[in-house]
């Protein structure tokens, strides 16, 4: 099987479906998810990176520096969607209290991540060859091993089609690209020149945890992230309040125009922007809406908010295990904030309460992170 970016089965599960017998196809269809447009996002139901080899356990905890961080005074807030714009997993609105914490004012940059890699020799998930024994854990039982040619170090790169398409299948604009990684965000022909202040991308959750450990920090809980994103503005849809995203001045790096083939560039950034290119929220935090999605510490559970029985949840740190009914076999972590690919007519991931999820071993061109510290 030839792997080319445009035609090829860049989505691993699609590849699997093409390589198994008819008898097994029905089981595999569970992995080939066609997205319900009403609930779609720019990367909903994307495949896992399919390796959970964690090298982060060899990273020694560093000494935290508060440079580039801001103290977020804790407090109570209502978590979830206060309007009718939310997805099902954003309800019910519920009261949460979080203790104070330090938070990076920007997404972690390529320059910062490069310092980490230089200091530790860390190799990211996307730079490693996937391992079948790990892959099979996230597939329906009995799934046969796909062709060896598909086991390559790769990551998912945004490759927009030339014409308008229906938005039912995210595989149309994501390509499983050999050689794509944080060092080569658009694939082997790309590099980080002039992108030192861009957020690092193609980092898995495991990579983000490794960096945070080295920096003496941690990933934010989902509750901390949303509390911080709201900047003290209660029950409003965006980190800046209520103004519609395409009214007034550009407020964040998202997608304007017809997704995914036409970007009007109204916000002056077609792709990823340098961190802090737009105004911060009231807590001094940049890009809490848009630019890149940000990993949180918590497992994702579509029904987590429903499960909270307490009147007020104190420092909630997520469910004990993942629960994504759309992909039952794949454990997923929470991501927040939306990205440069989020569009008002489609994803709306930049809403303060919007939740997204991905498997901890997945890297994508629109996914990064920032860190927090309690100390
Ligand atoms: Ca943009
Ligand atoms: Ca962001």
Automatic annotation (TrEMBL):
GO terms for MF: formylglycine-generating oxidase activity
A family per Pfam: FGE-sulfatase
TM spans (from-to): none
Stretches assigned to the Sulfatase-modifying factor enzyme-like domain: 67-372
InterPro entries: CTDL_fold (IPR016187), Sulfatase_Mod_Factor_Kinase (IPR051043), SUMF_dom (IPR005532), SUMF_sf (IPR042095)
Organism domain of life: Bacteria
SUPFAM superfamilies: C-type lectin-like
PANTHER family in the record: FORMYLGLYCINE-GENERATING ENZYME, SULFATASE MODIFYING FACTOR 1, 2
Name assigned to this protein: Formylglycine-generating enzyme family protein
Lineage, highest ranks first: Bacteria, Pseudomonadati, Bacteroidota, Cytophagia, Cytophagales
């Amino acid at each position: 099987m030839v792997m080319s970016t445009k035609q090829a089965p860049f989505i691993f599960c699609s590849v699997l479906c093409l390589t198994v017998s008819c008898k097994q196809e029905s089981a595999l269809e569970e992995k080939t998810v066609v997205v319900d447009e009403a609930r779609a996002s720019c990367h909903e139901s994307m495949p896992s990176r399919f390796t959970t080899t964690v090298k982060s356990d060899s990273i020694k905890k560093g000494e935290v520096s508060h440079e580039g961080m801001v103290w977020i005074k804790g407090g109570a807030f209502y978590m979830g969607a206060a309007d009718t714009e939310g997805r099902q997993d954003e309800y019910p609105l519920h009261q949460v209290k979080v203790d104070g914490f330090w938070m990076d004012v920007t997404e972690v940059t390529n320059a910062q991540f490069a310092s980490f890699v230089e200091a530790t020799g860390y190799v990211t998930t996307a730079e490693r060859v996937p391992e079948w024994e790990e892959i099979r854990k996230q597939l329906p039982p009995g799934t046969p091993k796909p062709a060896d040619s598909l086991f390559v170090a790769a990551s998912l790169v945004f490759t927009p089609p030339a014409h308008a398409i229906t938005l039912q299948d995210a595989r149309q604009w994501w390509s499983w690209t050999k050689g794509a990684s944080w060092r080569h965000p658009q694939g082997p022909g790309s590099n980080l020149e002039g992108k030192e202040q861009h957020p690092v991308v193609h980092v898995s959750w495991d990579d983000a945890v490794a960096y945070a450990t080295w920096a003496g920090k941690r990933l934010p809980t989902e509750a901390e992230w949303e509390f911080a994103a709201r900047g003290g503005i209660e029950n409003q849809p965006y980190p800046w309040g209520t103004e519609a995203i395409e009214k007034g001045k550009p407020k964040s790096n998202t997608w304007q125009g017809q997704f995914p083939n036409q970007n009007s560039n109204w916000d002056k950034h077609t792709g990823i922007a340098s961190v802090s290119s737009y105004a911060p929220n009231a807590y001094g935090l940049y890009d809490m809406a848009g630019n890149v999605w940000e990993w949180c510490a918590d497992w994702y559970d579509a029904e987590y908010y429903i499960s909270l029985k307490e009147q007020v949840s104190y420092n909630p740190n997520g469910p004990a295990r993942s629960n994504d009914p759309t992909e039952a076999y794949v454990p997923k972590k929470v991501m927040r904030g939306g990205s440069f690919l989020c569009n008002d007519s489609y994803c709306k991931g930049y809403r303060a309460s919007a939740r997204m999820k991905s498997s901890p071993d997945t890297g994508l061109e629109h996914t990064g992170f920032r860190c927090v510290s309690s100390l």
